[in-house]
Amino acid sequence: MKSEFIFVACKSEANDFVKSEVSKLAAEWKPSFSRPGFLTFKVDGGNPDLARLNHSRFIRTLGVNIGKFAKFDSLAFDLKAAVDSFANEAGDGFFQHLHFWPRNIGKNDQSIFAFFQWLHSEMDDPIRLQLKAFSEAHQLPLNRTASSDEKVLNVIQIDEDQFAIGWHEVKLRQQKWPGGVPRFPIPDSVVSRAFFKTKEAMMWSRFPFQEGDVCVELGSAPGGSVQALLDAKLEVIGIDPAVMDESIMANPSFTHMKKRNAYINKKDIADAKWLFADSNVAPQHTLDSVAEIVNNQHTSVHGLVLTLKLLQDKLTHEINQYAATVKSWGFNFVRVRQLAFNRNEVCLIALKRKSLLRFGKVKSKSSKPNPVASTPKENQSKTPKPNKPSENSPKANESSTNESGISESKSAESKSAE
Ligand SMILES: C[S@@+](CC[C@H](N)C(=O)[O-])C[C@H]1O[C@@H](n2cnc3c(N)ncnc32)[C@H](O)[C@@H]1O
Fold this sequence. Notes:
By secondary structure, the chain is α/β, with parallel strands linked by helices. It has helices spanning 15-25, 75-90, 109-120, 126-137, 194-205, 224-231, 246-249, 283-294, 319-328, 355-359, 371-374, 412-417, and strands at 3-9, 30-35, 38-44, 61-65, 97-102, 151-159, 162-169, 214-218, 235-239, 254-257, 274-277, 303-309, 333-337, 345-351. S-adenosylmethionine binds at residues 192, 194, 218-225, 239-242, 260-261, 278-281.
């Protein structure tokens, strides 16, 4: 009987969570070779149905292995053999993209930034030069964003001289990106890691953020996340007793309510369409704060993007409960996933109406007071405009992408992922 091997990428510390998910969602898949951040599963009978893992919380991306692991010296030969074998079966042009990525994108902020820069950097090391030559010879763009239903040939660097070759068809949004990690332009100065995770959350969610929409963030200091929201031309209210970065405070589209979540007057955030939360508190605490806002008579929040800390491993078992709680507030579309730029946390996104994903437009329901105008002065604080960029900010400006956090039409991954 023919067997296939599935490859799965995740955060390096999430291997056990993935194994546990696979044992529930595809029980007959047998765990095989694995390294931190990269697992394979043996599937007997061929034609494995990868869609069974669509709702995994910890899988960043996945596909089907082709052949044995390759070494650097044999990589071009093995890739050619892979392309030829599919050409024999399905005609020329089976693949449309070549993605190359390392299995371990790192745990701490530095290594995640380093990975991101690596993804954006010029192809000048011997491996990438070899892959670049291959990509040109076979007209397969290297590490570009793929489109829905396109087929991607993957080269995954497992160890210094060990490479897996695999492929996948793009059915989920994250499968468009090399290794499931989105590419986006980043500013010269990034306020905090939250900039990356919020960018990623916006791109993954496909929520129809519109210029000028009012957005509230609970736990906004120092402001990386707000930076990403301001980048998308949203009007942002940040709630946090801690100090915001000067560059954020200087932006006229930002208002700081320097207090704890519990002390905000809901009328002051009545115009908010989007609610983000990133407080360093237990998930239940975050959910309690969000519940108070979305269930309040003065507010009409359309969508949520919540960072939920996984303070202990056992909390991963409670993710279903968190999702159910959010649904019970009337959000009929809820998804939870660990993002590439999450650390020990997951991202929960929710929409009041799933149809918003299709139509890409959120109409304001009320003519509620402008939050800034109605906010008591003592709640707001502003500082003069700074000129000094912050230190330790990663720079990788040269990249561009055809995607943004702004609305997009419905595509295949939403159909298959729902
Ligand atoms: C991980 S940091 C947030 C990072 C931030 N989102 C960014 O983009 O830079 C967590 C923040 O939650 C804030 N926080 C903790 N408890 C809070 C509460 N009850 N209300 C508001 N903010 C709170 C902390 O002051 C801290 O600034």
